[in-house]
Design brief:
alpha/beta; two-stranded antiparallel ribbon; 12 helices; 8-stranded mixed β-sheet; Rossmann fold; 359 residues
């Protein structure tokens, strides 16, 4: 009886291992049948950008899209759903580590928007030389902060056939940051109107002082607000604390070009509107009405004022910054992409490239 039980147990383990192996093989075949992954190092001057390319199966050359990051220190594995979705629809998809992140060289926190835009253009130039890419059908997909970068990249390159701007602010980085700072931090922490007004101005003065003008009068203005509100419950965000660490020792402060800031802080006065007015490359702009990081009405109003026929605007009800709709009960149901969001995205790219994708 014991021998029979032991044999059954062993057989069960063997069967389980076989089932697991078959599942893994099927999973790997599913991906390899649709696309393969190629690693490339692409230079931009002294910077080396680590990239991965999802190459669709079948005969090329194919249209190509570069996935452009939002803020923070993102790497090439940040947008798996998009990279798979595009590749499965016969679009070469390029993912890359931001400069100074992952395996890419350089320093992200001393870069300005134009530096990052030039990284993108370097990738475009490389794609034009690849035999499996149709050099006349290269475009950019951008998330959030990337919406600013692709406008600069487009102005630097004549080789882009389409742009996709997902939830990119239609205002300066300073305006967007102050909107976020006020509505998602100060107000929620209980700050009143006077404090909000003074701290918004303080934030702007800090960025000017760190990156543009280090005058005594500006320093005194910054210091007075700092002393007034430093112990307030609403004056201790991560940004605030970082600025405290810089401002507490002004004599030891780094030179302007060496201070570590998010690129949006160094390029805080970049205005996308003139770029949008001059834009000739077809662009799809997608945004959700529940995007808490953006002043959505202001963004849409400015796009309407720009009135550029090259820009196609799609708005998704109740969708957040990631164009996802939150479902209830949220404990059991994950957010999902807004209805028609991915379909609109693919249809736009296919229209601009003349590529119908999968048959």
């Amino acid at each position: 009886m014991r021998t029979t039980t032991m044999l059954c147990t062993k057989m069960d383990k063997i069967k389980g291992a076989i089932v697991l192996l078959v599942c893994l093989l099927l999973l790997s075949c599913t991906h390899s049948d649709k696309y393969s992954v190629i690693s490339l190092e692409i230079p931009n001057g002294e910077i080396r950008l680590n990239t991965e390319i999802n190459l669709p199966s079948g005969a090329g050359p194919f249209p190509a899209v570069i996935l452009v990051h939002g803020s923070k220190n993102n790497t090439l594995d940040f947008y798996p759903k998009y990279s798979e979705y595009f590749a499965e629809n016969e679009i070469v998809t390029v993912r890359f580590d931001k400069r100074g992140q992952g395996k890419s060289t350089g320093i992200l926190w001393t870069a300005e928007f134009e530096d990052l835009a030039k990284d993108i253009v370097a990738i475009v130039e490389k794609l034009k030389t690849l035999p499996y890419v149709d050099s006349t059908k290269i475009g950019l997909w951008a998330d959030s902060q990337g919406g600013w970068l692709i406008l600069i990249a487009d102005s630097l390159s004549s080789d882009l056939s389409f742009l996709v701007n997902k939830a990119g602010p239609v205002m300066t980085p300073l305006e967007q940051t102050l909107y976020d700072y006020e509505n998602n931090y100060l107000r929620k922490k209980g700050a009143k109107d006077k404090a909000v007004s003074e701290l918004r101005q303080w934030y702007r003065h800090v960025l000017v002082y760190l990156t543009r003008e280090r005058s005594d009068s500006l320093w005194m203005s910054i210091r007075s607000v700092l002393e007034k509100y430093r112990r307030s419950a609403f004056f201790n965000s991560d940004h605030d604390k970082y600025y405290f660490s810089l401002l507490d020792n002004p004599g030891k402060m780094e030179r302007k070009e060496n201070i570590f800031l998010d690129p949006s802080g160094r390029s805080f006065d970049f205005d996308p509107v003139p770029y949008l007015m001059d834009l000739q490359t077809p662009m799809l702009y997608q945004i959700g009405t529940a995007d808490h990081l953006n002043d959505v009405p202001a963004c849409l109003d400015r796009l309407q004022e720009v009135a550029n026929p090259a820009i196609c605007i799609k708005v998704y009800e109740n969708a957040d910054h990631g164009i996802r709709v939150h479902r209830k009960p949220s404990l059991f149901l994950k957010p999902r992409f807004a209805k028609n969001y991915l379909e609109d995205l693919l249809e736009f790219i296919q229209k601009q490239t003349g590529n119908s994708g999968k048959e």
